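Newbie here. two chains, one complex. Structure please?
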Amino acid sequence: MSHFIDRRLNGKNKSTVNRQRFIKRYKTQLKRAVADAVNKRSITDIDSGEQVGIPSKDISEPVFHHGQGGIRDQVHPGNKDFMAGDKVPRPEGGGGGGSGQGKAGRGGKGEDDFIFDLSREEFMDLLFDDLELPNLVRNQLVGSTEFKSVRAGYRTSGAPTNIDVVRSLKGAIARRTALGAPHRRRIKEIEAELEGLLALGIAEDDPRVLALRDELDRARTRIAALPFIDTFDLRYQSFIQLPEPTSKAVMVCIMDVSGSMDQARKNLAKRFFILLYLFLKRNYDRIEVVFIRHHTIAQEVDEQEFFYSRETGGTVVSSALNLAYDVLRERYDSSVWNIYAAQASDGDNWDSDSVVCRDLLAEKLLPLMRYFAYVEITPRQHQSLWYAYQEIAGAHRHFAMREIGGPEDIFPVFRDLFKRQTA
Amino acid sequence: MSSRIISDSSEWTFPLLERFDREIGNLAHNVFGLDTYANQIEVIGSEQMIDAYSSVGLPINYHHWSFGKQFVSTEQTYRRGQMGLAYEIVINSDPCISYLMEENTLTMQALVIAHACYGHNSFFKGNYLFRTWTSADAIIDYLVFARKYIASCEERYGQAEVELLLDSCHALMNHGVDRYKRPSPITMAEEQRRQAERADYIQSQVNDLWRTIPMFGADGEPDADARWPAEPQENLLYFIEKNAPLLEPWQREVVRIVRKVSQYFYPQRQTQVMNEGWATFWHYTLLNRLYEEGLVNDGFMLEFLQSHTGVVFQPNFDAPYYSGINPYALGFAMMCDIRRICEAPTAEDREWFPDVAGGDWRKVLDFAMRNFKDESFIAQYLSPKLIRDLHLFTVRDDDRAEAIEITAIHEERGYRTVRQALAEQYNLGSREPNIQVFNVDRRGDRSLTLRHYRHNRRPLGESVDEMLRHIRRLWGFTVRLEGVDDNGRVQLLGEL
């Protein structure tokens, strides 16, 4: 009368919908918490999930309940030396003593944050919520170079690897059934006839019986001779190539590594680059990153070297822009790739070079790019580069420049740069 | 000589579970005469258990963020190891669904089978509150209907809209219970048919209600003082469902769903001590019987007893982890005590319990299980011996007095006071504020007046403003909350 059911293999995530709704409802609170978390986080784990807390009182569900005051009678266990009529001072904060009721409200408890784990996806969603890539255009070309294989039913010819076994065997069964049907019908008739003859007491060696047996054998052989599978049955999965708009991006990171950029500033720059990288990753299937560092001359380097090696010397920014231009022209055709660039610098530049940079950007680089962001990490006065760039910012909508003073500015500046444009 | 022991392993398998179920079921039905629904026992993993927790123990429920919140917090505490999961969840349905956790040992599974599948199950089937208020055979169907209905509302009117409505309904959930009328059980198809009918009908009624134009002249002035409703209504959700002027038909149906679910849980909230006490008493009795019959070995019993003593542990009031009276401990102690009074009554028991002392304990317990709820059960059966054993005492905290007062302890003149106070502590009516619909200004601004009747001068907590917002959302016009003190003086608590 009892039924046991093994449900262990059933879905585990019955509550996912409810959880998502919970997150959705408290999005503003969570977003605040996430933004805080980003600034506190070390750089290396920025791409993982996060524990965030929101104040419990913000998410309480109200009901009518009794407040403090009035008369209340409570029963407690474990009396040791109280006698009826004893007066006991009212315990504060509910510890010990007799007033269990006092615990609930007193002592400022219940202020704990409601903590929960966000998965990486959820974290990123909240982090980049309301942000969008400016000028996002999917490069879509006639005669596109990108194709995607898409299933397109079945066909009767193809490569052996594409044989669909189930489908082919279904066909084979159908064919065998159809071709064997007349013989099977005949067999049934003969068997009935034979039975009739034998029932009449006709001997086994009677010619009529022998003839029927002979025919029976022949019919059976005919059925057995039907091939189990025939080339006629074979079905192949069909794939066709659909042209696909490219969604590849390349991100060019340009950083000044001259003597004035110390490790702290590089870290700030790195955080900015990482945010940008994560953000691009959400928008594009494939991303390549080009690291260019420069002092008086520019080099293309790998990530490790980009962030951690130190150089000294003066600064010529145009060297990096030139190199970026060369790299792009050589490897990243702007008709196929979405090109983004971010430049971080402390603003130092060889005086006469700033004008060169401006022209380089305006004439050569910006026409190739979706977006170019310049962040200046400096607590000091702006120098010539800033002013030169300001001229570009006035003329080009996909050029943006901001100033970062310390770690707490990074995320706000980032948000500011990629704020969803309502216009 | 072959040993009768079922298994000496602690790993469970399905055949072993079935064997245990057979043995325990045999004892429960044939030896102790328990009457149960058929059992449906489902084995689940811990994550599924957390899922089950967060839909308030129901196998299926509509979607709402608050269940997500519950899920997240359960998952957190479980992951940090702050809390073990309950070993079982049992659902008052027919067949009675119980969940066993995969991680449990064989002993724990046997304990849970005895506790849930025979203890709780027979309580659900026997207790008058459950018989009256819940329809075990229809609840799953109803929940399926509710989930579908709310999902379709979300599709049609938007998730945000439905969520706001549900929030407000949830806030009033405890005030959505009929305490005296009995609903009749119906099937899901019937429910759907009636739902459509109801929607049309209610809407026409409500409109009618508000169309009433005061008739001047012929019948003279209408009685300006006449209140409506004529009698105060305690079921706020019901009142809103039937009378709120601006609700759409689907909104009324959602209010009704929340009300129904609340009603379903109402008996559980009133029988915590009894229900857990009953189940604990039976797992204890049944497993001990298995041991006496040689079906389980000493190791099994040791593990079982360790777990059992953990469940019925009652810390004293001055212990650091004291958090009130443990319903398992109190319930179990009372059930055992009733058995003792039947089997070995003392002179005191004969004086206090003349009807049951020396009776057949099975019959007495069965009667108690069927006909009481926590409040009346304690008032009826808490014995002086148990008060002494637990060293119970009552404390009066009067905010006008300097100090709190010990009003009674476990002594001759204190027994009745303690018993009365403990019973009162389990009286839902005094645990929750008494709030009723007092008046609706039908001819004026359509405002709704609620009254809170204070008991022992206990005021309402600080949630009043927020609650008024919720009620206002449902009612659609001004909502007023008045407090009535012990002397009948009325005072405005809030208006929105």
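Moderator note: The beta strands of chain B are 39-44, 88-91, 96-101, 393-398, 404-408, 434-440, 448-453, 479-484, 490-495. Chain B has a mean pLDDT of 85. Thread marked as resolved.
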